[in-house]
Design goal:
With 647 residues, the protein is mainly alpha-helical. Helices cover 55% and strands 5% of the residues. Helix 25 links the parallel strand 6 and strand 7.
Length: 647
């Protein structure tokens, strides 16, 4: 990538978000300028060689120090408060920011609080040492990670990052060595015990090497092979303040992308920021199942095109990214959840699918009948609106109409609840629970259409928009307090994606409602069920929407239930393999993802696996049957278990 393109990109980010860009530049500059002009290093040069560059005026040093401290806290506030991040994803970044700010804060206090000078000086020295030790350990772990890679990367990528790690290691070691003879730096002093004694001349060389390499790296970083160090920082700052897994609407006249020139600036930044750490690959169910998709490689291939054409390459990405890669993704968001620099390979894959589907008419043949059903009948099964209420027994469920236009809970049934024989029983169980709790509820009946989730994740944005707008139009005719659905995919679309089309509703997953009913003593599980139970967290419920406790609290409310957690659980759960349209795609490469998940469940020794998603229930049933366990393992929905417990 050319320096000219890097400067253009930085200029674009500056115009787009000037405050955060300026804060980022000040933050990085502070770590170069302040140490380089500190009096201690100037004095060392003068005492050794009799000359040295002038130190910064005290007012300038103080001002820059304060700016760095303010920038650190701006980043912390933005990430902790404005983004409402309440999990531990990327928690190391919070600690690193605090750790980076600590030497500046303590040094500033030591300089300006002369009465407590020695007190703050000790903390200043310790915080600086801890920061250097942290960098040293991080670089060491970085090198070990690449020396023990489990995946076959291109040699050039491996070698360039290994060299970068070794350079960083040398940089930190020479920094310690330069400080070694100074009694005030304990870690440096201990390091000097195992290193040869250094002369004043060597002291100068080491100091010069340390700061010149540090300054040179800062200057060359944006355009060199270490560009991800600066790009990843900017990418973290500019991580969009939106719900994980939410797909943005595409601009009028746009149909995804197939060339670099069609990517947004944030998508280009994602490709530049990828550090090739392999965390997405380690956690991707498609990779684990032996499929050709490698999320990291999608970003690396896009970045390769950026370098070749300075961001204006018009060659189609389908020449370097295969169809098997594009259509192997389950959109489970594991790669996004585990990325330390907040890249998003999934939105690139969806945009590639959009282009193939809407521009090239290259939708896989096996999924075309389902899309046709959505277009003609408004459901994935091709049954049509006339059969939407066939699952209702004995007229026990009210249907909203002109005569009955108001209710407390609008029960969203979805395609699986209306037409899948296995899941219609789950919805009847939900009806029993609501009636038992005295909750007033109703359904849309024949006016309901598919939420459009699977069509959208297969790239059929037009079909999704048509279905969503129809549903929004029908829903707005009636008065209710909240929408409740059992399907996490319906929940996600209704809650997070419909608002972009004008449909803002209060949406709740059924497990949340049932948990609240138990808490309020409106329903009480009376009949014990002795079982060793394990829990499969659906991706779009657990990882994407962070709803993991309701299933567990409901299970604990039933006497006789013992919970044994799986290794892959909660936000780190393992995909069932049905998302992203995979329910209808032929899974012919590698292993079946649901079989891998079923083996994990069987190996746990549980008698039963509980989930809260129609796709997961279907896939787990199939996977467990294929595993042929010696001890029977029953797959049930949490709603079924509650209904059987209340009698």
């Amino acid at each position: 990538m050319s320096l000219k393109y890097s400067l253009k990109s930085i200029l674009h980010w500056t115009i787009k978000r000037p405050v955060m860009t300026v804060a980022t530049l000040i933050f990085h500059a502070g770590f170069i300028v302040i140490p380089f002009f500190l009096n201690a290093h100037v004095i060392l040069l003068k005492t050794t060689w009799g000359f040295g560059w002038p130190s910064l005026p005290e007012s300038v040093t103080d001002a820059l120090t304060l700016l760095v401290i303010i920038c650190c806290f701006i980043f912390l506030i933005r990430r902790l408060v404005l983004r409402n991040i309440n999990d531990l994803t990327g928690a190391s970044n919070y600690w690193l920011l605090l750790l980076a700010a600590a030497p500046f804060i303590t040094g500033f206090l030591a300089h300006h609080h002369t009465d407590n000078y020695h007190f703050w000086l000790v903390f200043h020295i310790l915080s600086g040492e801890i920061l250097l030790v942290t960098l040293l350990l991080s670089i060491g772990l970085f090198i070990l990670r690449y020396l023990n890679k489990k995946f076959n990367y291109e040699k050039i990528i491996f070698h360039r990052f290994l060299i970068a790690g070794l350079m960083g290691l040398c940089l930190v070691i020479t920094g310690f060595y330069a400080k070694g003879p100074e009694w005030a730096w304990p870690v440096g002093s201990m390091a000097s015990l195992i290193l040869p004694r250094s002369s004043p001349g060597l002291q100068f060389i080491l100091n010069a090497h340390f700061f010149l390499v540090l300054a040179g790296a800062a200057v060359l970083m944006p355009s060199g092979f270490l560009r991800h160090v600066s790009a990843s920082t900017i990418n973290i700052v500019y991580w969009p303040k939106r719900q994980m897994g939410k797909l943005g609407t595409i601009a009028k006249g746009k149909t995804g992308f197939n060339t670099i020139a069609s990517l947004s600036w944030k998508q280009l930044l994602d490709a530049e920021a990828c550090v090739s750490c392999g965390k997405c690959i380690e956690n991707c169910p498609a990779v684990i199942a032996g499929k050709p998709l490698y999320p990291e490689k999608i970003l690396q291939k896009i970045f390769g095109q950026i370098k070749q054409g300075n961001g204006k390459n018009t060659e189609g990405l389908n020449t370097i990214i295969s169809n098997d890669e594009i259509w192997s993704c389950t959109t489970c968001m594991a790669c996004v959840h585990h990325c330390p620099v907040y890249t998003d390979p999934v939105d690139k894959i969806i945009d590639l699918r959009r282009h193939q589907t809407m521009c090239e008419n290259a939708l896989p043949k096996e999924v075309r009948p389902m899309i046709r059903n959505l277009e003609l009948f408004g459901d994935t099964h091709g049954k049509g609106p006339a059969h939407r209420t066939d699952w209702i027994q004995d007229n026990e469920v009210a249907v909203l109409s002109r005569d009955h236009f108001q209710t407390d809970v609008l029960l969203w049934v979805g395609c699986s609840g209306a037409f899948n024989p296995r899941y219609t029983t789950v919805y009847r169980s939900m009806v029993r629970i609501l009636i038992h709790a005295g909750v007033e509820f109703a359904v849309l009946g024949k006016k309901e259409r598919c939420c459009g989730d699977q069509a959208r994740r297969l790239g059929q944005e037009t079909v999704f928009n048509s279905l969503a707008k129809n549903n929004i139009h029908e829903i707005k005719k009636y008065t209710f307090k909240k929408i409740v659905t059992l399907c996490p995919h319906c929940f996600h679309s209704l809650k997070h994606e419909y608002p972009d089309l004008g449909g803002q509703f209060d949406v709740m997953h059924a497990s949340e409602l049932v948990q609240s009913l138990i808490k309020e003593n409106k329903i009480t599980p009376r009949y014990p069920r002795k079982s060793l139970l394990t829990i499969h967290d659906p991706c779009y419920l657990g990882r994407v929407n962070k709803i993991v406790e309701p299933i567990r609290k409901i299970s604990r409310a039933i006497d006789g239930i013992e919970i044994k957690e799986l290794e892959h659980r909660r936000e780190n759960g393992f995909c069932c393999g049905a998302g992203g349209g995979q329910m209808w795609l032929h899974d012919s490469i590698g292993r079946h993802i649901n079989h891998i998940r079923a083996e994990q469940i069987v190996d746990s020794g549980a008698d039963m696996v509980v989930t809260a998603c129609p796709y997961c229930l279907t896939m787990l049933d199939d996977g467990i049957n294929a595993a042929e366990p010696k001890k029977p393992v029953e797959a049930v929905d949490i709603i079924e278990m509650v209904a059987s417990s209340i009698g």
